[in-house]
Here is the input.
Amino acid sequence: MAATQKTALGESDPAASAAPGVGGIDWRYIRYRLRRSPLAMLGLAIIAFAAILILGAPWLAPYDPNRLDLLHRLAPPSLAHLFGTDEVGRDLLSRIIYGSRVSIPVGLAVVGISMGAGTVLGAFSGLVGGRTDTVIMRIMDVVLSFPSFVMAIALAAALGPDLVNAMLAIAIVRIPFYVRLARGQALALRERPYVKAAISFGARPLTIVRRHIVPNALAPIIVQSTLDIGGAILTASALSFIGLGAQQPTAEWGAMVSNGRDYLLDQWWYPTFPGLAILVTAVGFNLLGDGLRDIFDPRLRGR
Amino acid sequence: MSFANVVRRRLILLVFVVFGVSLVTFAISHMIPGDPARMMAGERASNEVVAHMRAVLGLDKPLAVQYLAYLRHLAQGDLGISILTQRPVLDDLVLFFPATIELAVAALLFAILLGVPLGVLSAIAKDRAVDQVTRTLSVTGISTPAFWLGLLLIYLFYGRLGIFPGSGRIDGPPPLHLTGFYTLDAALTGNWPALASALAHLFLPALTLGFVHLGIVTRQIRSAMLEVLQEDYVRTAKASGLSRAQIVLDHALRNALIPSVTMIGLAFGDLLYGAVLTETVFAWPGMGNYVVQSIAALDFPAIMGFTVVASTAYVLVNLAVDLTYMFLDPQIRAVG
Here is the structure.
């Protein structure tokens, strides 16, 4: 029904159609606003490009990322090797292209885990209220007070140097942000008639969380998670850089910068290009996240 | 809520946080693969010797008893012996602590001194070229891997131009130890060659760490300024014919700075994170460099000691920042 109303309002002014679409989010309005933000569009373009690299790596990479070529060790950038080669003659461009299959999914997974766990826990906490809520939130206060990277180091070190462990470590310390966000939304939504009705019908809390709270709390959570993906990619590559993430011979950007560090002064291209890949990807997600925040945050509208 | 009440609540939280950190590090040191008793006794020690070592270390006691013993040691400042340096972890950390703080303070100064004017400029020139450039710069800052930026700066300023040293804190003997901050000690003792060397060594690491924070500070000041510039008192000031500079500096910036204090304080936690990476790249002899070397050597007492000390420092800094904020904000002070 909302759809017919929207068409009746006409295409000329989508900004006026504030009627929420699926999941409380008006995607047409978001598209409309995004198109008018050049920086957000740039972010979207970078992400699209990264997606092409991830999906098309076998076809786009000029060489096998793990093929050794000892005759062409540490070769400078040339037409044969656009980004040069590493200390065992592997083509850096190919390794960077394949690296997108490691670093970006890791970032997405980290945010997926912390967002999923945090949202459900926060929505549940806010909905149920009372002592359960107090206990959960006090625990979150304590976790929030930890310096997250230090905890990630300790966790990753204890779990053993491995990419999945690094991922879990980063995800766990990010959960409280989503708990707070989702709880705030749940507290507001709890007073809405349809949620009250669901409660009075005897719906189970987790059903209400899934059917009513989460869909309506999605907007701020999407903004937060988009902004988080860039950070998660940076943190995961940082853990790899200090030896706690991806291990040889995985083509992971942070680990590549770490290996290239020894050759910095004579083979500048080796650490430079993998690091550039991290930077550009993080810029992409941060630009899109900024754009989305401007759209969703009514206080920033029209500024 | 009154001021005293907030302070009380925060202090209680502080106790819980330190307790939580100790619980986590205790749990972690029990999760690590390998048997500490065997490690201490040696690879080829007999089972009896290992069992004896286990009893000596208290590892045969129930977990709760072990945890209490761990807490007692923590309370006495005993963080164990580093496997790598064979010295008490606390002594090591005390040794490396000033270098980290010196770097963090220098980076924060750089970020604030450059970030505040940029943020103000960006806000008053909203959506114009200056604003676009500044926003791009701040997104780039937030998205830059500190470890990578450090390498680029070393390549450029040390490798190519040769105008800055690429590693370490100082050439030649360090200045007389007063505070442990080389720049401050050198200045206080009038040791000008040491001061010059210390400053030259500090420059690139501080720039690396500061650039990431420049983005955070600029963004925060910009949005706080935008909010404040819409306030009624700014409009009143405009209407009463005050100059633009007077309005921006006297009325807007002063009020925009208050909420920014919390943000910049929270950024201190990120500074710790960046410091670990920056110190590694520049072989800066601070706590971050120490912990990365400990990770490579699987030196768990050192890693956990660092976690406890860094977490506690972080919580204390945040507490101090929040109290400063409450003190600065006349609204909170008046209500309190």
The mean pLDDT of chain B is 83. The two ends of chain B are 6 Å apart (CA to CA). Chain B touches chain A through 56 residues (CB under 8 Å).
